[in-house]
Design a protein that fits this description.
The protein contains four helices and no strands. By secondary structure, the protein is an all-alpha fold. The radius of gyration is 11 Å and the shape is globular.
Length: 69
């Protein structure tokens, strides 16, 4: 999977995550370690580095685990 395809897949994961947890895009971005209320907008523009994408995935995984506990 190339970077562009991975960004598209991550965006779909984030949108699903936000719906599941009732989070607005800006709130999601603020909660992540990136602390950027425009994060999802930047994702839609395809403007993320691989390291940022990894941080977003790690955040969602931890959030899911905390929600179960």
């Amino acid at each position: 999977m190339n970077q562009n395809q991975d960004q598209i897949a991550l965006l779909q994961e984030v949108e699903s995550f936000c719906r599941r947890h009732g989070l607005a895009d800006s709130r999601f971005g603020a909660l992540t370690p990136i602390n950027d209320t425009h994060l999802v907008d930047r994702m839609r523009s395809g403007m993320l580095r691989r390291s940022t994408m990894n941080k977003v995935r790690q955040f969602m995984a931890r959030y899911e685990l905390d929600a179960v506990a």
